[in-house]
Design a protein that fits this description.
Layout: H1 8-21, H2 30-50, H3 53-68, H4 75-95, H5 98-117, H6 126-143, H7 148-163, H8 169-186, H9 193-209, H10 214-231, H11 234-245, H12 259-262, H13 265-281, H14 284-300, H15 308-326, H16 344-352, H17 360-374, H18 379-395, H19 404-425, H20 428-444, H21 448-469, H22 472-485, H23 494-511, H24 516-532, H25 537-551, H26 554-564, H27 568-578, H28 581-589, H29 594-599, H30 601-618, H31 642-665, H32 679-682, E1 691-695, E2 702-706, E3 711-715, H33 720-737, H34 743-770, E4 778-782, H35 808-811, E5 813-816, H36 820-826, E6 841-845, H37 853-861, E7 867-871, H38 877-884, E8 889-893, E9 895-897, E10 907-909, E11 915-917, H39 918-923, E12 931-935, H40 954-960, E13 965-969, H41 978-991, H42 1003-1016, H43 1021-1025, E14 1027-1031
Parallel strand pairs: 1-4, 4-5, 6-7, 6-8, 8-12, 12-13
Antiparallel strand pairs: 1-2, 2-3, 9-10, 10-11, 13-14
């Protein structure tokens, strides 16, 4: 019935009539429900016309009664619930009655449940109900009428569901804003630890689905920061900072009611989070990073910018903290709003007057003036500031009361201002004067820490002029300056020294300067100190990642330089020193002391004890950021912060260890104790077969083949670098763009294998033939850079006369090693002597979510050797580690997890959600371990964010903790291959007749043969290429 044509009196008459009829109808029945719904319609129309709350209230009561008459869920009753909810929302929006929001939540939850159960379509999209439930829950949070944390948790679950639906972006965004508002309205007043994890995942997904929304990025950053404050995870703080850096100063998509909360966050939070990281970890680079970001914010803000006072105040606070923590007064910032600055001419006059006495407050004004100068972007202000600095410098020698630190900082600021003026105007005289000013400062100040401040400006100015004129004297001056400020007696944080040395190495290499060798040798000397400045494996990895742009390729570049100079042996030493730094550090902690014990048992015992202490400290922080310091005692503790205890302990142990190493090196025949291995030592890696090292560098690329008693150099074409990168990028892109079982991915992988053969395989095979290495010999790959991600073992097909398709693994038995030292270590005899008896096997399996795992388990349990099974609930992290200690072989059948950006969280998934992480594996000492088969996904995979040459994956971790040979997977594996592959592998390894060859040394051939059988079944390329062998 169309009500619109009726007048108000007609409507009121109809309402009266219906009110008279309904009481006479049976209490239960469809007719009564039908009349109640009609009465609702007439009353609701009356409300629409008159705004009468009484009519709205009565209409809702009629709907509720009609709904109660429904005996069971039907399409009509579901539709009636929907109408009731709409009407309640209308009254809720208009009159904010708490009872209405409770009813809405209850009815919408009911609708969601019924909608999922009903098989008939009722015309109400499931997403529509979900959207309204999010809205209702937000209103309940706003009115504070329910359990706020549980409401937010439910909203989060609903929003994640919506993010994975096909709902339009605009509708999704508007309802996600409800969750955003709920978060910001409650985060500061309620403890939200229980819901932080799902909230973070939700807003991560929102960022992916709606990347244009800065509002959700800000919320994600806030949540990550809050979680960082709870668990001190470096990963959370880094993600928060990265997220914030992508947001403009004033996000354009903020709702009006959130702008006052949001507008200052992008400018301030990067610095705030960096500062908090410094406060937690007491790592100086975080304080420097925070100061840098605030200076950048201040320089980008005009003098009347509303945020300038706040930024200025926080910068003053940070530099105050810097002075308190480290006693560094240089660069200290004085808040200009605290000390109102006189004009520059007045300031200049106060210093140049020899009869004037300058108070501390006046010095504060001068410092404030210098700081405000260095941050300005306005050309007129830059030029005025340059005049002030020139005037003061010209007459300052006449003023005996001039403050030392001010004088030094004046040189720094003037040099920097002139550099800024050159960049704004292009006038060469500005850059010339900048260099001249800094030279005068360097002549005036000889203390190393003072020269460091001047050197930062000098290096930038000299580099700028070198890029313009290539003046040889500028190059020499820059190199000499870096050499002087990075000398051993310079009081400089290791990270600063390291950056200067990287700059020296890069510039010397670029310009062909004769100091290239000195630069790199100095760089390598401080490399380990720079790394160990961070106390834990996680923070050391973080430092490596932060330094990767400046350092990652430098060892490869230096090796290329050495090869170019005819020193391939030295190049191999360089590659060994500059790769897998974390594994090398950890391997040093477990250095054999057998020879030392024979000479000095007491010293050997001391060294073993201190290595255990240092290893405990280095591994004492779990990847999630939890501090595990209960068993660590710190002498002379200077703070109650747990991480600072860790830092203090590590500094203490490192110092003691250095002294102990000096004592050991003083012994006869121990002069080279713990020194990097020489080329002669590294050659022993090739005792059982050649090792192929690919050095990939933009300067030149080479393939080095290390034999037992010789070294071959295979030079490459000029486009080798480009082609290698293209192959890597093509494979990564295909893995992202296509399903792994798709024909497109198969074609891409096939083309990559073919390209690898043309680029690497063909010249290597030719060299092996030339050196008379017979087919079916063992060979090892030791790749660098992009080749760490590429399946070198499966290159091909290789052209043949008989038409048979062959790949590299058909001609030779390939293995990998992250470094030559790791391969050498895998062959060292066991302390209790080598055994050739059939090995016992530990089977670790989690079959619940792996469809075919039960068949693989059965195959392992029926092998002709002793098998101990840890399956499902019996496989806990502790039981697995304990089992590993008592078995020679181990076989894992479970999921492997890989976490982007956090390699120490890579893990094997065990029962009940428990995980055996990479870090827990590394902690283990496994004296009897020989071989591990990791039948799980991603066990030898490097993520895109990983540092390729560090080899931080589960396979390398298993090898490090004692296993001599390991089978892993480059990517995800198909569990249906597990049974046949395992059966063929163990049949080969356990039945082969190779007298005097340990069983673990038979694993590479056994894997090659098992994969060959798998390949013969015509499985997709990905499935057989996936398997790799590491170690002996």
């Amino acid at each position: 019935m169309d009500i619109e044509g009726y007048s108000l009196p007609d409507i009121e008459g109809t309402i009266f009539a219906l009110e008279c009829i309904i009481p006479s109808l049976p209490r239960f029945g469809r007719r009564r429900a039908h009349y109640l719904i009609s009465l609702w319609k007439w009353r609701f129309d009356h409300y629409i016309r008159t705004g009468s709350k009484e009519q709205l209230d009565e209409s809702i009561l009629h709907l509720v009664e009609a709904q109660l008459l429904s005996v069971k869920p039907t399409a009509d009753s579901i539709e009636l619930f929907n109408v009731l909810v709409k009407t309640l929302f209308l009254r809720l929006d208009k009159f904010k009655q708490p009872d209405d929001v409770e009813s809405c939540v209850k009815y919408l939850r009911y609708l969601r449940n019924q909608r999922c159960q009903l098989e008939v379509g009722v015309g109400i999209p499931h997403e529509y109900v979900t959207l309204n439930l999010v809205r209702a829950l937000y209103i309940r949070v706003e009115l504070n009428t329910g359990d706020i944390k549980e409401d937010i948790r439910e909203m989060t679950t609903l929003c994640r569901e919506l993010l994975n639906s096909d709902i339009s972006g605009s509708v999704l965004e508007s309802h996600l804003l409800s969750l955003t508002k709920a978060v910001w309205e409650t985060l500061d007043i309620l403890p939200m630890e229980e819901v932080l994890d799902p909230l973070i995942e939700c807003f991560r997904e929102a960022n992916l689905r709606l990347p244009y929304s800065d509002c959700f990025s800000l919320t994600l950053a806030r949540l990550l920061y809050d979680r960082f404050e709870k668990n001190y995870s470096i990963i959370d703080s880094e993600e928060a900072i990265t997220t914030l850096k992508k947001i403009p100063t004033f996000p354009s998509d903020l709702p009006q009611d959130l702008r006052s909360q949001f507008q200052d966050l992008p400018l301030l939070w990067v610095a705030t989070i960096s500062y908090r990281r410094f406060a937690v970890f007491h790592m100086p680079e975080y304080l420097e990073e925070a100061t840098f970001h605030l200076r950048v914010s201040l320089s980008s803000a005009s003098r009347d910018h509303p945020l300038r006072p706040k930024i200025s105040e926080l910068l003053a606070s940070l530099t105050e903290q810097r002075a308190m923590e480290f006693g560094v007064e240089e660069g200290r910032y004085r808040h200009p709003d605290v000390h109102k600055l006189p004009s520059l001419s007045s300031l200049a006059a106060s210093i140049t007057d020899p009869n004037s006495s300058i108070s501390n407050e006046q010095w504060d004004q001068h410092y404030g003036a210098l700081d405000s100068m260095i941050l300005t972007n306005d050309l007129a202000e830059i030029e005025e500031s340059i005049k002030y600095c020139r005037l003061v410098l010209a007459s300052i020698h006449c003023v005996p009361s001039v403050e030392h630190r001010y004088h030094l900082y004046l040189y720094v600021v003037l040099g920097y201002l002139l550099l800024r003026a050159f960049r704004r105007t292009g006038k060469l005289e500005c850059i010339d004067e900048s260099i001249s000013v800094i030279r005068d400062g360097l002549k005036t100040y000889e203390a190393p820490d003072e020269r460091v401040q001047l050197a930062f400006v000098a290096l930038v100015s000299l580099s700028t002029r070198i890029s313009l004129h290539q003046r040889e004297d500028d190059v020499d001056e820059m190199i000499q300056l870096i050499a002087s400020i990075t000398s051993d007696d310079t009081r400089m944080m290791p990270s600063y020294r390291f950056r200067f040395l990287c700059r020296w190495a890069i510039e010397a290499l670029n310009l062909g300067h004769p100091s290239v060798m000195d630069a790199f040798e100095n760089l390598f000397k401080v490399m380990q100190d720079t790394l160990s400045y961070a106390p834990t494996l996680e923070s050391q990895h973080h430092r490596l990642v932060s330094m990767r742009l400046g350092f990652q390729d430098l060892p490869l570049c230096y090796a290329s330089y050495q090869i170019d100079k005819g020193q391939p042996g030295k190049a191999i030493e360089t590659l060994e020193r500059g790769r897998a730094l974390l594994w090398s550090e950890m391997r040093d902690f477990r250095t054999s002391t057998d020879q030392l014990r024979a000479v000095d048992p007491t010293l050997a015992a001391e060294f073993e004890a201190i290595n255990r202490d240092l290893e405990q400290v280095t591994m004492s922080m779990a990847p999630c950021g939890n501090m595990e310091t209960e068993s660590i005692k710190v002498e002379d503790s200077w703070t109650t912060d747990p991480f600072s205890h860790l830092v203090a302990k590590q500094r203490q142990v490192l110092d003691d260890r250095k002294k102990l190493i000096s004592r050991i090196r003083a012994l006869p025949n121990f002069r080279n104790f713990l020194e990097p291995p020489s080329f002669d030592v590294l050659c022993s890696a090739a005792l059982c077969g050649p090792v192929i090292i690919i050095n990939h560098c933009k300067w030149r690329c080479d393939i080095l083949v290390l034999f037992r008693d010789s070294l071959s150099l295979i030079t490459t074409t000029r486009d080798f670098d480009r082609l290698a990168i293209e192959l890597g990028d093509r494979l990564v892109k295909a893995r992202k763009d296509y399903r792994l079982e798709s024909k497109q991915y198969e074609r891409t992988l096939r083309s990559v294998l073919k390209g690898l053969y043309e680029l690497v395989g063909k010249p290597v095979i030719e060299e092996l033939c030339k050196m008379k290495i017979p087919e079916q010999s063992r060979v090892w790959w030791c790749p660098t850079s992009v080749f760490c991600h590429l399946p070198l073992h499966a290159m091909g097909p290789i052209p043949s006369d008989d038409g048979v398709t062959r790949y590299f693994s058909d001609l030779y038995i390939p293995s990998y090693t992250p470094t030559l030292s790791a391969l050498i270590a895998s062959r060292k005899p066991q302390a209790e002597g080598q055994t050739f008896a059939k090995p016992s096997i530990l089977l670790v399996a989690q079959p619940e979510s792996l469809k075919h795992a039960i068949h693989e388990i059965w195959a392992i349990q029926h092998l002709t050797t002793t098998v101990t099974s840890l399956i499902s609930k019996n496989a806990t992290p502790s039981s697995v580690v304990e089992g590993l200690r008592h078995h020679q072989f181990s076989h894992f059948v479970c999921h492997g997890n890989l976490e982007e950006g956090n390699p120490f969280n890579a893990s094997f998934k065990l029962s009940g959600g428990m995980q055996l992480t990479l870090l827990e594996i590394v902690r283990s000492r496994l004296p009897t371990a020989e071989f591990a088969f990791l039948s799980a996904c991603h066990t030898a995979e490097l993520t895109e964010e990983s540092i390729s040459d560090e080899a931080l994956h589960l396979t390398a971790a298993v090898q490090y903790c004692g296993f001599r040979s390991v089978v892993g997977t480059m990517w995800a594996m198909a569990d249906e291959d597990g049974q046949d592959l395992a059966e063929d592998f163990y049949k080969s390894i356990l039945s082969s007749d190779e007298p005097g060859v340990p069983y673990y040394e038979r694993s590479a051939r056994a894997l090659r043969d098992a994969v060959k059988k798998l390949r013969s079944k015509k499985v997709p390329l990905e499935r057989w290429v996936n398997y790799v062998h590491y170690g002996a």
